[in-house]
Sequence to fold (155 residues):
Amino acid sequence: MSKKSGYRGYIISRPVRGVSYPHRVQNLVVRDYATRHNLAYKLSATEYAMPGCYMMLYDVLAELPQLEGIILFSLFVLPQRTESRLEIYDRILGAGGELHAGLEEMVLQDRNEIENFEEMIQAVLTLSNTPMGGYYQKSEDPKFNNFFLNAIKED
Fold:
């Protein structure tokens, strides 16, 4: 049986919460996180750009017997379906691994921490359904304000 070594990075080629981060920026976040937390970093797997594609993530999950865990660029690179995320958490924890989210500075080391991950995701997913009218008005010109409110609603 081989010894586990290192944490595989995981970055994505799609926007994260509406922002397209270049791969080099995502890798900087992952590497910096690993350095600050004394984690042995292994090169990141880069997900394909097709919407809903997680082929590379599942390849990394298959690699778990040789890894100590995974460092995600962001918690929000995980699938939007709760059931899919729970399956991923189970696979990682079942293999004795850890899941780190570099941008949010979060770590999943045991089942008790799943709730923290899920609360963060659910809170952000709920924001798009929250009435924000009037909260972001910065100008006396209503056309300018509507531009920003419409941009928020489109996310």
Summary: The mean pLDDT is 87.
